[in-house]
Write a structure and sequence with these properties.
Blueprint (H helix, E strand, L loop, with lengths): L18 H13 L3 H4 L21 H10 L14 H14 L2 H4 L4
Helix pairs in contact: 1-4, 3-4
Length: 107
């Protein structure tokens, strides 16, 4: 970070396994047009979100920072457009697509 400032990285989702948050995340996924690249989770332009192969990790913190910061070659950074609690709800939904929320946070 500029000036040597560091930002603490969250390590767990406040909404892991929370069915209401997952439902909210599904709505946000549609609202922010995540389906435009990831379809219904099966992938399209972007990678699938329903399999066991995650380029940047499938843990809640990995998905959170992928959404916030973006990734090279396609994933835009949404950090300035989505509130943090909304990102966590999207994370809960995305993890639910592969059943990851049932396997716990340590992925």
């Amino acid at each position: 970070q500029p000036g040597g400032a560091t930002i603490a990285r969250p390590v767990s989702s406040p909404f892991e396994g929370d069915e209401r948050a997952i439902a909210d995340g599904k709505k946000l996924y549609a609202q922010f047009n995540c389906a435009g690249c990831h379809a219904g989770g099966g992938g399209a332009i972007g990678p699938p979100l329903m399999d066991d192969e995650w380029i940047y990790g499938s843990g809640p913190q990995n998905i959170f920072w992928t959404v916030v910061e973006g990734r090279p070659q396609g994933m835009p950074a949404f950090g300035s457009r989505i509130q943090r609690d909304q990102v966590w709800r999207i994370v809960a939904y995305v993890r639910s697509l592969s059943g990851l929320h049932e396997k716990g946070a340590a992925q």
